Structures are given as C-alpha cells and as structure tokens.
Amino acid sequence: MEGWLRNLLLNSLLAISLINISANAAEIGDEQSLNPVIQPEIERMDFEESRIDPDNFEIIASAGLLSIEDFGVNPIYGFKLAYRVSEGFFVDAELGLSSAGQTSAEILLPGAPLLSAGERDLTYYLVNLGYDIFPGETFVTDSLTYNTAFYVVAGIGNTEFAGASHFTLSMGFGYRVLIADYMAIYFDVRDHTYKMDLLGDSKLTNNMETGFGIGFYF
Predict the structure, then answer these.
(1) Confidence (pTM)
(2) Cα angle at 181 between 127 and 62, to 5 degrees?
(3) Whole-angstrom Cα distance, residue 62 to residue 212?
(4) Domain count, the chain
(5) How do residues 68-117 score in pLDDT, each as one tens digit?
C-alpha cells in the first residue's frame, strides 16, 4: 500500500514538472518570436513623389538648318502644336519657315536668277504622327535624373516654294529630354520629300532638316 502511494506521488510530481517545463519553454519561444535576438536595422528614407503635370498639349519652338536640294543649306525656324494621345503616341501640327539660297548655276551666271526674291521663301505645313520607341532616363548625377525618349515621326503636308505648292512627305527621328514637369528640349532630324519642276524636268527632291527645339506643356 505504501509503495503504491509513493509511486502515485512520484508520478504526480513528475507530471507537474513536465507541465511546468513545457509552459516555460513555450513562454520563452513566444518571447523570442516577439523580441528576436538579432534586431534588423532598417533605415527609413523620407522622399517626395514626383508631381508631373497631367498636361497633354505642348507648344514647341525650334531653329535649325534646312538643306534645300540645289539651293544650299539655309536657316529654318519652326513652330508646333503637339498633343500627347497616349504614353507613347503623339500628333502635332507643324509650320516651318526658311529662304532658299542660290544654285551653283546662279552663282556662275549671276545675271540669270532662277527665282525671284519672293519665290525663294519656303514655307511648309505638316501634320505629323510620332511614337516614342525608346523611352528611358538620363542620369546626370547621383541625384539628378531626366526622363528621355528616342522617337520616330512621319507626316504629310504641303510646301510653298518657287511659286508653287508641293505635296510633301516627311519622315525622321528625334530625341526628347524632359527637363521639368512643364518643359522639354528636342533634337530632330527630318527628310522632307516633294517633287520640283524648275527647268521643265520634274524630279523628286530630298530636303534634310536638323534642328533644336524647346517645348512647354499646358
């Protein structure tokens, strides 16, 4: 009887000890979960999100050089009204103004000009469609970054030159840098193609234009 009672007491004490050990282990595990031994040091950085104006219209003024076939390279000035159709596509209406120089024949024979002074003025009107094929970023410094895009553009319109109107096709490419949320700068290369008939021989002319521009969004 005494042996049975002794075994009961020992078993009870052993069970109570095991329960206490399990409870302490669980408590230690919870504490370690809440307070890990290795505390990660996370440095929070304060920053302000860029505020880009949601303006889709843009006015662009440009200046450059126009190589008028047979009439040399001459200054040209342009103006555009552009509209951003989507993130990649844009359309614009363009006006270009230039004045042709003398041909080699006129230089050799100064008394026989091919065109009058008024006929040397060149004006073109175009409607263009463009697409940003390589949008990206330019990192100037570690803290200064500009949004950029390499784009292609094509258009149709009319060129007033040599006393006549010429249906014109225009194709080219350009590079745009957004230097502020309201302003961008441009570098363009274009080829304006139209037929000319000065001496009774109609031919297709290619007139290359390069220029720089500055645009303002509104």
Answers:
(1) 0.73
(2) 40
(3) 5
(4) 1
(5) 998 999 999 999 999 999 889 999 999 999 999 888 777 777 777 788 88
Asked whether residue 101 is assigned to any structural domain, the reply reads yes
Residue 19 lies in a domain: no
Phi, psi of 107 (to 5 degrees): -70, -40
In terms of Cβ atoms closer than 10 Å to its own Cβ (0-12, 13-18, 19+), residue 68 is buried
Token duo for residue 124: 């073109």
Task: Check which CATH number belongs to the domain holding 136 and give it.
Answer: 2.40.160.20
| CB neighbourhood size of 58 (10 A) | 19
Instruction: Identify the CA nearest to 73 among candidates 97, 100, 96, 95.
Output: 100
**Exposure on the CB side of residue 151, measured as CA atoms within 13 A:** 21
23, two tokens: 């409870």
What are 33-78's pLDDT values in tens digits?
Answer: 555 556 666 666 664 544 445 568 999 999 999 999 989 999 999 9
Domain assignment of residue 142, given as a range: 57-217
Which are the contacts of 103, defined by CB distance < 8 A and separation ≥ 6?
70, 71, 72, 114
Q: Are strands 57-67 and 203-217 parallel, antiparallel or unpaired?
A: antiparallel
Contacts of residue 197, Cβ cutoff 8 Å, sequence gap at least 6: 164, 203
State percent of the chain over pLDDT 90.
54
| Single-letter residue type at 153 | V
Tell me, yes or no, whether 40 lies in a domain. Answer: no
pLDDT digits (tens, 9 = 90+) for 152-176: 999 999 999 998 999 999 999 999 9
